[in-house]
Write a structure and sequence with these properties.
two-stranded antiparallel ribbon, seven-stranded antiparallel sheet, binds flavin mononucleotide, alpha+beta, about 200 residues, 5 helices
């Protein structure tokens, strides 16, 4: 085995190594509005669920040139966001919205994405997204020693494309066809799906 101590790496290399082993990562495509009403859309793969009930997720946002990225700024200003699951059809548009545009640039227009209104929060949702999760800010948590801030958000409404929901109340991953992030510019799709029953103890 090669043993690596992250303190001995350049921060950039520690990041690259970490994201190459935490694979695949789900992608949250996040819609927010600023206090001035400016719209923003950007993807984040430091993203996961952290509690089942109430359903709670985290998205961790780094800085750009020493300032909060637009998504974090907007969430801190308004406390609301919508997370979308990216499927294969939407992968290119998602990637396009990761461009580090200035605050006043509307990624929706740039990517040519149609909007639908949300119900419980103000940021709009992506009409073509198979899943949209309306969320309200619970807490922002600065990650000690880093330039990242973790956003904890409570899901207040799920929007699920009708054909995806199984009778058991869960989404069919094979139909959802999510795209997940690997390292660098690499992505993956769902491979084979297998089942394992949990041990009965
Ligand atoms: C698939 C993907 C995942 C990303 N994940 C993150 C992430 O977890 N945290 C982060 O700070 N930036 C991440 N980025 C970079 C942001 O999307 C990028 O900095 C974007 O410009 C931020 O937009 P904003 O300033 O409008 O919020 C990711 C980019 C891509 C393409």
């Amino acid at each position: 085995m090669t043993t690596i101590v992250p303190e001995e790496l350049h921060p950039r290399d520690a990041y690259r190594l970490l994201i190459s082993v935490l694979v695949p990562r789900p992608i949250a495509w996040v819609s927010t509005l600023g206090a001035d009403g400016s719209a923003n859309l950007a993807p984040f793969s430091f993203f996961n669920g952290v509690a089942g009930s109430p359903p709670t997720v985290m998205v961790s946002v780094g800085q750009r040139a020493g300032h909060a990225k637009d998504t974090l700024r907007n969430v801190q200003e308004t406390g609301e966001f919508v997370l979308h699951i990216v499927n294969e059809e939407l992968a290119e548009a998602m990637n396009f919205t990761s461009g580090e545009w200035d605050y006043d640039v509307d990624e929706w227009q740039k990517a040519g994405l149609a909007q639908l209104p949300s119900i419980d929060v103000r940021p709009p949702r992506i009409a073509a997204a198979p899943v949209a999760l309306e969320a309200k800010l619970v807490q922002t948590v600065p990650v000690p020693g880093s330039s990242y801030t973790m956003i904890l958000g409570r899901i207040v409404r799920f929007h699920i494309r009708q054909d995806l929901l199984r009778p058991n109340g869960m989404v069919d991953a094979a139909l959802l066809r999510p795209v997940a992030r690997l390292a660098g510019d690499e992505y993956t799709t769902i491979g084979s799906i297998f089942t394992m029953a949990r041990p009965q103890v």
